[in-house]
Amino acid sequence: MQRRLVPLLLASLMLLSIPFTVSASNTQTTHSQTQVVMNSGDTEWNISVAARAGPFFVSVDCPSLGTECQELDLTVTDGDGTTFSTSGWFHLELDGTIGFGDLSVVVTRESGPSQVLDVRILVLDPLNGEFGDAPAAPPMPGEDASTWPSITPTTCGNLTTCVGSMYATTVGLAAWWNGTIDSPDDSDAIRLEGDSGDLVQLRVVGVTGAISVEVWERTGDQLNMVESETYHNQPNLTAPPSLFLEHNPDSDLWVVVNSVDSETGLYSFIVAGRSASDETEYGETPDSPWSGPIFSGSEVSLSGHLTSSDEGDSIRLEVGSRSQLFIGWAAYSRVDVQLHARVGTWQLIESWDGSPIDEFNTGTAMVTLPEGADAAAITFLNATKPNIWYLQVEKLGAADGYLFGDANDDYPTGQGTGPYASYVGESGTIAGSIGGDDNRDVFLIAREDGFPERSWLGATLAGEMGCCTVRVVQLNTSLYSPWPVMAQNETLLSGQQASVGMDLPHGYHLLVVESNGSETVDYTLNWGWASPDGAGEVDDENGQGNWIDYRERANSFYIFIGFVLLSPWLVIAYWRWRDGGVLQLEKHEKRRLRRLMQRLVSADPTDADDPNALLHALESLADTDWRALIMEWGEPIVRHTTDSLDLAVWDLAPNAKGRTVTVGLRLGGDEWTLAAVRFQAIEGAGWKVGGVTPESLFDEDEVFLGDLKANTNRFLRIDLEGEAQGFDILLSGLVGGSPVAAVPSKAAILEEE
Question: The pTM is what?
Fold first, then answer.
């Protein structure tokens, strides 16, 4: 989880500026930029856009090189039936004047390979944008602004909902404005609505002539330009940066669009907002009573904003003693991050300075809170310009007794139960971790008044052999200050089913787990209340009996049940002796392996009737005996075997652009992290990965596998594109925190078909 936090944060920032992507099908949208994917075999893509009468502009670009770009026909038809058309390979462009109605845009081609197209459509929207000519300049200070056009930015909501909202690129979650610059001296002034402390994100998504966008701030007695940016039709609108603006007290914001170099044409931009009313105010230090939101749970994902008038944003986390936190953050520009913890009073634990450069400001940290901490707070502050921040926190432990942190190390003193985890009822389970500096976990157990006959507390500790011991401690139930100890009973065993019990009166008592080990280990403590009544003679007067030891009567049973449980191994030993230790495959096993091979070759993950056929086949392979697989499929085209790794590659069949292979990985006792496999071409141009099942990230000739757990098998089907005679396969990653690479001694040579 920790290793994916920063990529997710960066993706949250970057997705705010990429074009919207659709497949080759009918779509109704008002996006000015659209990225179209025409799949292999598709011959047409079309879209219908509502438009007002006036100018229009449509362009189609194929960013690919070489044969991946096919000859295209572009046809535009307006609501009156007027048609515009053109043809080309890499760049097609149409403009003119259209009538009111739905504008149809159709791109056709002869059947060909998959290709990506960048489509830009600029029209006058029927609902948003410039109606008539907007005023050329903002009103002067004190002048009535009611006749000027305005935009009300759509806000993403509170700190939780904003983190998942790519609202600046999604229709319906951002306000759109389309307008025209009719002459070299034409300008359009539009008001940006908002309250003091709100943040506005503005992004230009399309122009047909060069424009400048100016941002002006108007107060009661001044009108000042605060920011300016120039945009051209190419190339800086592929992924243009956003303008981040803030609403200051007693002022309003204005956008003015001007012509650059006397150019005229259409323009389009979108506006999204962050509301100050959805956030919390930051005080001098986090303190009680807390005014900000409190977030519990094992993972927290949040997003907020800062402005120059905002002292900061603080978020409180529900944590415990010695809680381990993995913190990842990102922001569009410089920001400082602070971590406070409450141990009686609030203390500054860590402080991270922002990046000195005006780029994405990101960072991660692993922090263990002090002993006795019961709350934490993360604060963003010191923004030098309007800024949006993202935060992800993962609570990694210790989670003793299902707390957020470590259980108490000392016996209770003073009055009341305090922060101790207490357990009430007939029985229960307590899980935790112990070892190293944390050598004791103390839990309160309450014997209730409702169970007068259930006075015997029994506890069994399950954990690694020798990891720890468990003790029952009887407290003085008549004097809970300072909780004096009356008696105790400790197990003679440690780890793995160590048990202990004790007869206790009503009230609070202790279960104590202790360890002298240097390594942290996990344990589970199962406890329950029982009556000490035995099955012997019963005293009719008070109903009390005696404990009776029946262990000697069970010896014959243990011998019998042991023989029954071990008897299947006799049959297995006979089979192994009969076959001379050689693996034998039954006919049904061979048929199964052949069917799996056929499914790997023919299954299509895009088949709507059975989309999971290929995935199920790969999962079945992971449960197949490795030796049986090699016996039936034959030797792999390349194999690399060590004590902790077996890597094999089978050549399945040719595909439309290259080869399809199956990669099998059998892991031993070592766990790999950040693993990746690369196909390095020999005797020819480089390979390119076209698809991977199960879905994995890939780039050029490399597939990213992530974490490979120890003692597991993993299979993938990989579609390679290229014409090289073979490849060297390289597996790389981290083992025990150190970089490791596994490279077979010989290359894979592919058979010519």
Answer: 0.57
